[in-house]
C-alpha cells in the first residue's frame, strides 16, 4: 500500500515541477512579447 502512495507523491512532485516550468516559460514569453510590443510602439 505504501508503495502506491509513494508513487502518487512522486507524480505530484513531477506535476509541480512541470507547472513551475510552464509558468516560467509563459512569463518569459509574455515578457518577450511585452518588450517587443514596447519597442514596436516606441
Q: What helical percentage do the residues reach?
A: over 70%
Q: Give the integer mean of the pLDDT values.
A: 88
Query: Count of helical segments?
Result: 1
Strand content: under 5%
Q: How many β-strand runs?
A: 0
Structural class by sheet pairing and helices? mainly alpha
Largest sheet: none
Give the N-terminus to C-terminus distance in angstroms.
Answer: 61 Å
Cα shape = rod-shaped
Series of secondary-structure elements, N-terminal to C-terminal: H
Radius of gyration using CA atoms only:
18 Å
Can you describe what's shown?
The chain has 42 residues and is mostly helical. It has one helix at residues 2-41. The protein is rod-shaped, with a radius of gyration of 18 Å.
Quick gist of this model?
With 42 residues, this protein is an all-alpha fold. The protein has one helix at 2-41.
Question: Which SSEs are present, and which pair or pack?
Answer:
Layout: H1 2-41
Defining traits:
42 residues; mainly alpha; 1 helix
Amino acid at each position: 500500500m505504501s508503495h502506491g502512495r509513494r508513487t502518487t507523491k512522486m507524480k505530484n512532485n513531477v506535476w509541480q515541477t512541470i507547472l513551475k516550468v510552464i509558468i516560467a516559460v509563459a512569463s518569459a514569453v509574455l515578457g518577450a512579447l511585452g518588450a517587443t510590443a514596447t519597442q514596436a510602439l516606441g
